[in-house]
Amino acid sequence: VYGNAVIFHRGDRTWNGNTFKSDNTYGMDRNTPIPQDTVLTVNSSGHIINRWGKDFFFLPHMITIDTQNNIWVTDVALHQVFKFGPYGGSDKKPLLTLGTRFQPGSDDSHYCKPTSVAVSQDTKTFYVADGYCNSRVIKYSITVTSDGKHAVNKITEWGKTAGVMSIKKGPYNFNIPHSLTLAEDKNLVCTADRENGRVLCFDTDGKFVRNLQPEGFGGRIFGISYAKEQLYAVSGPEFNPFAPKPVGYILDIESGNIDGTFQVTGGLQNPHDVVVSPDASTLYVVELSPFVVWKLTNGQPQAASNTPAAAGGKMAAVPGNPNNNNQQQQAGGAGSTPQQILLNGAKKLVPTSSGVLWAAVISVPITILVSCCLAIRKCRKKGKGTMPDTNRKNWSLGDILGRSKEGFQPLNTDERDGIMGDDSDSEVEEFSVPAMHA
Fold first, then answer.
1. What residues have CB less than 8 Å from 305, skipping those under 6 apart?
2. Measured between alpha carbons, how far is 132 from 99 in angstroms, rounded to an integer?
3. Cα(178)–Cα(230) distance, rounded to whole angstroms?
4. Bridge partners, 200 (sequence order)
C-alpha cells in the first residue's frame, strides 16, 4: 500500500487434512474467526506501520493491491473475495464482498476456494482465479459511484469444466489455476496452471492464445508475474525426488522460449510466488519452507526500495504470525549487508487431495524402476558417454539485461530448513511484497 509491503497471514490457523470436509466446506469452528490482525503493512525497514483484519478472516490465501491502493483478498474457508480500501478503510469493513459465506459452489454467486485476483490498471476490470475446486477464471467489470457503491457484472468465465484431478490438458483444462498476471500491453491475462506445469495465456475476453511450457520448464508452476514483454515464473518442489530442483524462469511472452533463469545462493527450495517491478530490475520471490522472501536486483544488492505501488500488484505469502520475535531484517544500501525478511512458523503440511497423495505414492516405485533401468543401460555402454554441449549458452539474468554475468543478486543468502510443500496450500499463507506490475 503506497509503496509499502503488505502481509496477509493466518495467525493461529493452519490448513491440514481436517480443515475441509469432503464436500469442500470448512470443517473447523465457524463461530471463531482469527483473533489476530491478519493484514500488516510494513515499511522498507521492516517496521509494522499499520495492522488490521482481526476477528474477520478464517483462512486467508492471497492479497492484491490495485493502482488506487485498494486491497483485494481471498479467503478459502469463507469461499469469498473481498475488496477493502487502503489500509482496510476507515471502518475496516469490505467495500465489496463476492461469494457466499462458508458455501462452496460453482454458480455465479459462489466460489470454491478462490486463489488469486488480478485487477486492470484502470481498476474497471478484474479477474478471479476460482482455483482449488472449480478450476476456472472469471472476468468481471466494476463501476463505483460517487457515493462509493459498487456495481459488479460478470462478463465471462473459462475453464469451469476442468476438475482438480483433470487428466486432459486442453487449453481450458486447468489443474489448479494458482496465480494470475495481466499483460495489458499484449491484451493478455495469463494463469499459472500449477499442477499441469504450464502457463496458459488468453486474451482479456478468455479466448486461448498460447501455452507456455518450453522444454526444461518445471513440472509445477506456482507463481507468475509480467514486465517488459517477459513473463517471470517460479517452479515449486515436485513429488518425484529425481526431478529438477525449483528455479525461476524468464520467458519471452510471445514465443514462450526461456530467455533466462534466476536463482539464489544455495538454490530455491520451495518457492511459492514471484513478482517483478515494472522496469524488470527487481524481483521478489517468496519461499514457503524455508519461510523467506528474497529480493533480487540486477546489479549490486540494495536495500528494499520505497517505490510507489504500480499497476495490478501481485502478492505472495508465508505462514506463521509475522508479529513473533523470530522476524529478522537486515537493511543496508548498495554494497552493504544484504537484506531479507524471515518469518517462521512452519508446521507439518498435509495434502488435502487424496488423489494427488496416491499419485505421489505410486510415482515413487515407478521412478525408482525407471532409474534402475537407465542405470543398467548406462553400465552396458562400458564407460562410453557424452560431454555437455559447451556451445549451448546458459542464460543468466545478466545476459538478458545486458549487465554482469551474475545478473540478479539476492539481497540475503541466509536460509532456514523446513518442510517441503504439498499439493495443497496447507499452512501456506502469502507474504505480500510491494505491489508491482502484474
1. 44, 282, 434
2. 15
3. 19
4. 191, 211
pLDDT for residue 11: 80
Beta strands in 108-160 (DSSP E): 116-119, 125-130, 136-144, 150-158
What is the phi/psi pair of residue 372, to 5°?
Answer: -65, -40
Using a cut of 0.85, tell me whether the model's pTM lies above it.
Answer: no
Peptide bond into 271 cis (omega under 30): no
Q: Phi and psi at residue 87, in whole multiples of 5°?
A: 55, 25
**Distance from C-alpha of 344 to C-alpha of 318, rounded to nearest angstrom:** 8
pLDDT digits (tens, 9 = 90+) for 391-432: 333 333 333 333 233 333 343 323 233 333 344 443 333 333
Are residues 79 and 46 in contact, defined by beta-carbon separation less than 8 angstroms? no
Q: What are phi and psi of 368, to 5 degrees?
A: -60, -45
pLDDT the model gives residue 167: 62
Count CB neighbours of 44 within 10 A: 17
Question: Residue 350 pLDDT > 80, yes or no?
Answer: no
pLDDT of 284: 78
Distance CA 191, CA 193 (A): 6
Spatial separation of the C-alpha atoms in residues 348 and 29, rounded to whole Å: 20
Q: Which of 322, 343, 430, 429 is nearest to 14 (CA)?
A: 429
